[in-house]
Amino acid sequence: MLGLILRGALGGDSAGGGALALIIACCAIAGLYKCSQFRLRDCSCCRWWLRTTGSDAFDDFPLFVMIHEMAFVSQDPSLVTRVRLTAGDQQATTDKITGKFVGQALEMSIEQGAEVLTIDITDAYGSKVLASLDMNIVEDIIKAEDIRERTYPMHDKRKTLKHPRIKLTMRQANGYSDEETGILSQIGVSDGATGEMVRHHLQNVQHDLIASQPPAEGGDGDEAEGDPAQPPPRLSEGQLLAQACRGNLEKVGAWGAKDPVYVAVKGPPAVNKLCLGVWRSEKSFEKNEQETLMIDLLRVVSVQVHPSYDEAFVVNYVPSPNEKKQLTLLRVDRPREVWVETLSLLIKLARDKKEASKKGARKGKKN
To answer: What is the largest CA-CA distance in the chain?
Structure first.
């Protein structure tokens, strides 16, 4: 039909007319395809109208999703999976996951008009969905008071997985309380997914430290906690980072041997300098037993991800001016990126304090 109309309009079957007809036909097909791809919310006026009338409950917003771990029953001990998030036309996928601990964060845009966030556990290639969870964006995410390390049951889709569950933390961008913003405002945490994981870890450490401190004098713990005139004690940046840099790891030795260790930071008055210590276990550290290794943080050259081990990081240090050493550690209960950034922040803080002390000493001599 389109060819007959064009032929009649051009008045003949000449070669020039045929070429022009072909160009017009291609343009018409492209226009029809473009119209078929048009969505109502692509028009800013339509978007405004849908929000004004209440048809759409929210504007576009970025969502950070931290995937802590999965729990499931599988007959395949070497099963490799991924976690995929889908909301409307937007998708985000983790790296390949071996085992049940994930420790990854994803950032994705939730577009206006999207209704459901689908969380899938897929195979290593993303072609087969093994388990799935649908979350209503308004009811389950926006209106939720606090999604912090919450475990959700999932629906198994194949026999590969049984009884799947997933532990998540979700937060909208800039979705921090005034208290949390004040706590972290002085710490130069990176942006993006890694920064979100670091902030989450620091907040958990902050909450645990405050909860472990004794109540104020003159009342029991409940009264002190509920009294607005007695705000919770504030920790220094150094205290928070030092506490955040402790936990269980595996030390990678010669020929790839792995030994469980416990790492913690010690400083004055226990030791003269701020140091990173390595103990055989957490009990050994709590009993104040002798450490197997103690590294002066000011002698640490760098902390970086391992180039070969996906879950390991390396501490490069110089115990003496003519000696260079490496300590390779494998993460156990938190992502290695969190270890790398928190240690790096603490080392930078120690160096800044030393430099400030030197400047103060020089000014004192001049005066």
So the answer is: 102
Is residue 327 over pLDDT 80?
A: yes
d(CA 328, CA 349): 22
Q: What is the pLDDT at residue 264?
A: 95
**Angle between helical axes of 237-244 and 336-366 (0-180°, round to 10):** 150
Peptide bond into 321 cis (omega under 30): no
Q: In the chain, what are the domain boundaries?
A: 61-172, 242-361
Give dist(CA 82, CA 76) in Å, integer. Answer: 15
Tokens describing residue 41: 């919310």
What's this model's pTM, rounded to 2 decimal places? 0.71
Q: Residue 103: which region, alpha, beta or left (left: phi > 0; alpha: psi -120 to 50)?
A: left
Q: What is the DSSP letter of 234?
A: P
Specify the 3-state DSSP secondary structure of 211: helix
Specify the CATH number of the domain 242-361: 2.30.29.30
What are residue 167's phi and psi, to 5 degrees? -105, 125
Is the model's pLDDT at 215 over the cut of 70?
A: no
The reported pLDDT for the residue numbered 297 is 94
CA distance 102 to 81: 10
Task: Check residue 226 and give its pLDDT.
Answer: 45
- Classify domain 61-172 by CATH architecture: Sandwich (2.60)
Distance CA 267, CA 253 (A): 26
| Residues listed for the chain | 367
3-state secondary structure of 202: helix
Which carries the bigger pLDDT value, residue 255 or residue 40? 255
State yes or no: cis peptide before 269, omega within 30 of 0.
Answer: yes
Q: Is residue 162 within 8 Å of residue 73, measured between CB atoms?
A: yes
How far is CA 163 from each of CA 85, 157, 235, 313, 330, rounded to the nearest angstrom? 20, 10, 41, 33, 29
Contact 112, 89 (CB under 8 A): no
Whether residue 273 contacts residue 323, with contact meaning beta carbons closer than 8 Å, is answered with no
Cα–Cα–Cα angle for 265, 267, 217, rounded to 5 degrees: 100
356 bridge partner residues: none
Q: How many CB atoms lie within 10 A of CB 152?
A: 14
Structure confidence at residue 243 as a pLDDT band (50, 70, 90):
very high
